[in-house]
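To assess whether ligand presence alters the predicted conformation, the chain was also submitted together with pyridoxal-5'-phosphate. Input:
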Amino acid sequence: MKERVYLDFNASAPSKPEVIEAVGAAMVAGGNASSVHARGRQARRAVEEARARIAKLVNCRPGEVIFTSCGTESNNLALKGAKVTAIAVSAIEHDSTLAAAQASGTPWLLLPVDEVGLLKMEALEEVVAKTQPPFLVSVMLANNETGVLQPIAQIAEKVHQKGGLLHTDAIQAAGKVPVDFAALGADMLSLSAHKIGGPQGVGALIVREGVELQPRMVGGGQELRRRSGTENVPGIVGFGRAAELALDDVEGRARLATLRDALEKSVAGMSPHSTFFSQPVARLPNTANFTMPGVDGSTQVMAFDLEGIGISSGAACASGKVASPRVQMAMGATEEVAGAAIRVSLGPTTQKADIDRLLAAWQRLWERTQSSRQAAAAGQE
Ligand code: PLP
């Protein structure tokens, strides 16, 4: 049997052997990072070492890193914990940000994006001008489906001018493009270990020194009283190792962009009416989001799975069902076009042979659907 091809790195990036080894070693070492004895102190050292590595990955101070249980928790902590009068989130945020805004109990609204997925600056300016400070704006650095990159530094400036705070979800950006917390000017920034090849179930919220944040999880006062609960030492150690490995892989990123661009070019050659979301603007080097006209995204996912290829369409819900394609629809696509989109996301282990397998399967499915459409049309005549 042929080996399976994995092209769904934005869903979860498999851990590198070095990460698995580091997690295993931390599990063997054991210990509670809050214990005062030698084993506890060893666990504490491991956590602080990981904190420093994550701080280095995103250019912040180690004291600004708060470990959480996942990216979803980081987004929840930022949106529910900030002491603000109102919240504005972009229309293409991850469900965890949208749901946290909704559940925050604070008045909130959506900020629109344009047809390439970039935040509409006039809408932002209008909202910040008429909102009572301190308010919170949340705009993701990179979108998980299209990979579009937002001009966060510019957004932060507009938000700060009017006395607001800016949170950015950098969960998909970290490790794929340089992320510089200081240069972005954000007040809070979310990360998730499993998107950069660390273990699942660990995340971090970077909180700029001086930003007031009400903890959501209370108890023993860990993580500078901002997130209680015994630290997941093996998970955090794996996160730190993954952060270290992800740093400065400029060549790797360029290689992925070349493979991704070749994939899109070949698809466009086979199907000139395919839509390529966010293609004209700056986006993640590993992400492609495009349509097979008239073929539902979930049908494509199943067809490719049968061919041994893992991709995705839309964001997968806990049930394994696929949510409505709201990201592409927020960019102005009709439900039919948005529903025909798939996401292909590459990673460090992706090779040209993987892309060739996907293209061959894509062509087979495309030709099959074309011929059944022609047969159906002929039957109607
Ligand atoms: N934000 C973005 C942009 C994501 O892609 C994801 C994961 O899909 C999350 C948040 C949630 O992260 P986690 O899976 O660690 O809860």
